[in-house]
Design goal:
single chain, alpha/beta, Rossmann fold, Dna Ligase, domain 1, 3 domains, 5-stranded parallel β-sheet, 3-stranded antiparallel β-sheet
């Protein structure tokens, strides 16, 4: 059982982590950027520490986050989702600093946190995948791929890192590809610190089904059944975006 964990996130997910930890008798320490000091997640934790930056960039500063954990005498870091949660390099840095990373092993993150690497593994295993590129894809290669699909076939520009539907755009007209590429790269860089993009054929009205896998680090693994992520407001794998409630 951990004694004190650092919550390397903000907002709703940080509050949920704080409440769960406190229910287990584990102390929590929140982080906040210079502009987040009065946010609710700061009050939900037992203690808090300011990061040197502001906005999203503050929470992506790996060295500052690890330094905060050490300064707060924490023995683990919980990244929540987004930000550094799927960053294999950050998970390795935690281990090097003697901190437990509450999440998958760095090797697992390196594989599945990179959609391109995960796609290549699926192809090697004989799993059917959507037509798309398998390496970091520049604008000229993306344009060539779209032209190869033929007129009227839409594509999805995707960020290779992160998730949550960020860094994704549907492109139906080749004339809109350059703008979509620029927007996706900028959003991915801001959200995940990685602007690598690739492209796939777009599947209208797709369903996004996930199966949650849970392991405790001892070899015991279970699943939390499936969930239909098509209900989420952000695009995930190209499904239609539901109307706001």
């Amino acid at each position: 059982m951990f004694r004190r964990i650092l919550i390397a996130n903000r907002g709703e997910i940080a509050i949920r982590i704080a409440r769960a930890a406190q229910g287990l008798g584990i102390e929590t320490m929140a982080l906040h950027g210079q502009d987040d000091g009065r946010s609710l997640h700061v009050l939900a934790a037992d203690r808090a520490l300011a990061l040197p930056g502001s906005g999203v960039a503050a929470y992506l500063d790996q060295e500052a986050v690890i330094a905060a954990a050490l300064a707060g005498d924490c023995d683990a870091i919980h990244p929540g989702y987004g930000f550094l949660a799927e960053n294999a390099g950050f998970a390795r840095r935690c281990a090097e600093a003697g901190l437990a990373f509450i999440g998958p092993a760095p090797e697992t993150l390196a594989l599945f946190g990179d959609k391109l690497a995960a796609r290549r593994l699926a192809e090697e295993a004989g799993v059917p995948v959507i037509e798309g590129t398998t390496r970091a894809t520049g604008l000229s290669c993306a344009a060539a791929f779209m032209a190869k699909l033929g007129p009227g076939v839409p594509v999805m520009v995707k960020a290779a890192a992160g998730g949550g539907g960020r860094g994704m755009r549907v492109v139906k007209d080749p004339a809109d590809l350059a703008e979509a590429y620029a927007r996706c790269a900028s959003e991915a860089k801001s959200a995940f610190g990685d602007e690598t993009l690739f492209i796939e054929r777009f599947i209208p009205a797709a369903r996004h089904i996930e199966i949650q896998i849970l392991g405790d680090g001892t070899g015991a693994v279970s699943h939390l059944f499936e969930r239909d992520c098509s209900l989420q407001r952000r695009r995930q794998i190209g499904g239609r975006r539901p109307a706001p409630a």
